[in-house]
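User: I've been trying to design a sequence by hand for this structure and keep getting stuck. Would you show me what you'd pick, starting by listing the structure so we're on the same page?

Assistant: Good idea, let's start from the same input. This is the structure you sent:
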């Protein structure tokens, strides 16, 4: 992909988009974001048609002619191969986000590990991530390629550009394919750094004040936040201070405390 790749879907020819989707597939395969026939990539063309990767093929080895074309409603109108059922997820982004012209879905090892462990990437740990993505929430599990998964995703789509899918993988979107791909890379990199920080010691999160400064810096970096706005902010060190006031009790400890309180109360009467 060349620097022209940041142009929106409607500013390039279909031929160019076909080449770029194959390139994104190759990059995802080389970086082990996908293996075998996993993952899928799509681009919304200028006329609203959607160019997407086919099912049952290694996305690292695609040729431009392997791609399929769908109408805006998701009906396949071109291509001898069959589109993946996971394209439903892509259609949801295109339907809800007029600003989105490309969607990437993959199963990168570390971030999918977080998703499989039920963990979001929602800590205020790295400036670029806070500025670029805010946070990466975890969407509850639903069977891949079903309307249930789309329903689980729906509340998040307008507010975030990258999402973890519980026990499944990652989906990212962007105004162009290069941006959507970079967001996928950023999510995986963030997951790796988070683990490295946890291995090295206790990750030191930003305060909410620092997060506010980073959010204000978005304009300077030309970051356009998702149109839904009011996304939840990442977890900060202030939240941790609040957590420090919480206590955890075992059931028997709680029972003992209640018993003690009742005994004291009876003794007072
Ligand atoms: Zn998948």
């Amino acid at each position: 992909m060349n620097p022209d790749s940041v142009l929106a879907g409607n500013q390039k020819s279909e031929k160019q988009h076909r080449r770029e989707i194959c390139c994104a597939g190759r990059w995802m395969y080389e970086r082990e974001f996908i293996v075998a026939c996993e993952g899928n990539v799509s681009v919304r063309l200028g006329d609203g048609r959607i160019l997407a990767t086919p099912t049952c093929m290694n996305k690292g080895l695609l040729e431009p002619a392997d791609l399929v074309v769908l109408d805006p409603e998701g009906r396949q109108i071109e291509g001898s191969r069959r589109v993946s059922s996971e394209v439903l997820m892509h259609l949801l982004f295109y339907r809800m986000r007029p600003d989105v012209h490309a969607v990437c879905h993959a199963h990168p090892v570390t971030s999918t590990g977080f998703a499989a462990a039920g963990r979001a990437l929602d800590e205020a740990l790295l400036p670029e991530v806070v500025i670029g993505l805010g946070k990466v929430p975890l969407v509850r599990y639903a069977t891949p390629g079903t309307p249930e998964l789309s329903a689980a995703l729906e509340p998040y789509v307008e507010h975030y550009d990258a999402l973890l899918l519980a026990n499944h993988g990652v989906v990212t979107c962007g105004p162009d394919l290069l941006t959507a791909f970079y967001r996928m890379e950023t999510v995986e990199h963030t997951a790796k750094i988070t683990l490295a920080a946890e291995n090295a010691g206790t990750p030191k999160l930003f305060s909410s004040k620092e997060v506010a400064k980073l959010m204000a810096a978005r304009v300077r970096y030309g970051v356009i936040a998702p149109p839904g706005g009011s996304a939840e902010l990442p977890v900060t060190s202030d939240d941790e201070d609040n957590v420090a006031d919480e206590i955890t009790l075992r059931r028997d400890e709680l029972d003992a405390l209640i018993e003690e309180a009742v005994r004291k109360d009876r003794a007072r009467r």
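That's my pick for every position. To get oriented when you compare it with your attempt: The beta strands are 40-44, 50-52, 68-70, 76-78, 102-106, 138-139, 162-165, 169-174. DSSP finds nine helices and eight strands in the chain.
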